[in-house]
Amino acid sequence: MELETVIGLEVHAQLLTRSKIFCTCTTEFGRAPNESACPICLGMPGVLPVLNRTVVEFAMKLGLAVHATVARSCRFARKNYFYPDLPKGYQISQFEQPLCVGGHIDIQPNGGSKRIGLTRIHMEEDAGKLIHGENLGDPNSSYVDLNRAGIPLVEIVSEPDLSSPEEARAYLLKLKSLLQYLEVCDGNMEEGSLRCDANISLRPKGATALGTKTEIKNMNSFRNVQRALEYEIERQRAILSGGGTIHQETRLWDATQGVTLPMRSKEHAHDYRYFPEPDLVPLVVDEAWIVAVRATIPELPDEKRQRFERDYGLPAYDAEVLTTSRPLADYFETAARRYPKPKVVSNWVMGELLGALNRSGKEIGACPIAPENLAELLQLIDAGTISGKIAKTVFEEMFETSASPRAIVAEKGLTQISDSSAVERVVDEVIAANPEQLMQYRAGRTKLLGFFVGQVMKATHGKANPQLVNDLLREKLR
């Protein structure tokens, strides 16, 4: 029996507000344990939550960006469960009346295009964090840090429209890009500000009914999401092919072993005993508020990609890469305004610049080369001041020092030699020093031109104008 994969993702994104969702505690990351926890975070008797308006606006902004419907009235609910890092014994979330319903995200897996539907986007508060003692030299104890309790989240629930781990990864990358463009979440999976749970099942190919699903948790990178899904597909396929039964459960991803492991049987909505949050009135959203939030939405990745193809004449691949993040797109546009040859700028940004950033572990926002300096480097090549090869050396120095290319060229004496008489003298010397290669060239081994070019460039320390070198050598070797 041929089986097909069905995947739906539940993504929690931590919102970039300065304070928590129901109190004024800071959301700053990295503070000392339990330094950012107050009686409201802890649900002490007599305290009341107050909704953070910015949380609502950020959630609305995301909903509008993905074409969801913003509810004119929604409300919060209590989701009851006990974990050591949930001090109140319940979480304030949304259940029957979420803020946003529907919408979609378009992805481009393997060069194609696919629309992934969204079920809902709702607001909720985060729980705290358990720190187990083996990481602190105390293997018999566990500790709780409640700084994260009350941090504002949005949960983005997709329809089960994804059919492969590659599509799931593409969806997550697109969602991260959207969140960063909107400046509502930094998308940092390693710090926990973007977390993903995956629901996955297999069914006979062509069937419409969903198979029994498992939920996978504990995936802290896009690569681990893909690996976990690949493993779980094969695990379920082996069970079903052997006549076994899949049990609905929650499983943890163990990245070290590369396997999913049982965690608990899967809860259902009734297990959480949802009921309307009595301490918060229903939230009413009027048209004026929606219009005001919509006006804050910037040009989004898909729109920017299409504009880069149309206005700059870039290939689809270049436009896709350059619009992955808003800072990268801004960098490209700044450089292209100073040096109006977009494809050349694109080649340098996607090649040298992104390569150097990856090797150094830096993001584009921390790039030591200003876009204006990259444009200046390309202008120096066009002016014949330096060669393309020397430009690579200058680029490396720019990345190390943040200095301007003109200053580096002047300081290190890297100006290209374009004086034909000076280059001709070197060409004559190289030909005279290599009589055997000269005879072979004149006997028909014209590929030796490259050898002579290399010798001239070596003799001039790479400073000779390459085009001039080639022209003079072709003339004299004849």
Can you walk through the features of this model?
With 478 residues, the protein is an alpha+beta fold. It has 3 domains: 3-293, no CATH class; 301-412, no CATH class; 420-477, Orthogonal Bundle (Arc Repressor Mutant, subunit A). Helices cover 40% and strands 19% of the residues. The chain contains 16 helices and 17 strands. The protein is elongated, with a radius of gyration of 30 Å.
Strand content: 15-25%
For the record, the count of structural domains works out to 3
Count of helical segments? 16
Q: Kindly provide the radius of gyration, computed on alpha-carbon positions and rounded to a whole number of angstroms.
A: 30 Å
Query: What summary fits the major beta sheet?
Result: 10 strands, mixed
How far is the N terminus from the C terminus?
71 Å
Structural class: alpha+beta
- How many strands in all? 17
Low-confidence parts: none
Mass-distribution shape = elongated
Helical coverage, percent range: 40-55%
Mean pLDDT: 92
Keywords:
478 residues, alpha+beta, Arc Repressor Mutant, subunit A, 3 domains, three-stranded antiparallel β-sheet
Layout of SSEs?
Elements: E1 3-14, H1 39-42, H2 53-65, E2 69-70, E3 73-74, E4 77-80, E5 90-93, E6 100-101, E7 104-107, E8 114-125, E9 129-132, E10 142-145, E11 152-158, H3 165-182, E12 194-204, E13 214-219, H4 222-241, E14 249-254, E15 259-265, E16 275-276, E17 283-284, H5 287-294, H6 301-312, H7 316-322, H8 326-338, H9 342-360, H10 371-382, H11 388-401, H12 405-412, H13 420-433, H14 435-442, H15 449-459, H16 466-477
Parallel strand pairs: 13-14
Antiparallel strand pairs: 1-11, 1-12, 2-6, 3-17, 4-5, 4-16, 6-8, 7-8, 8-11, 9-10, 12-13, 14-15
Helix pairs in contact: 3-4, 6-7, 8-10, 10-11, 13-15, 13-16, 15-16
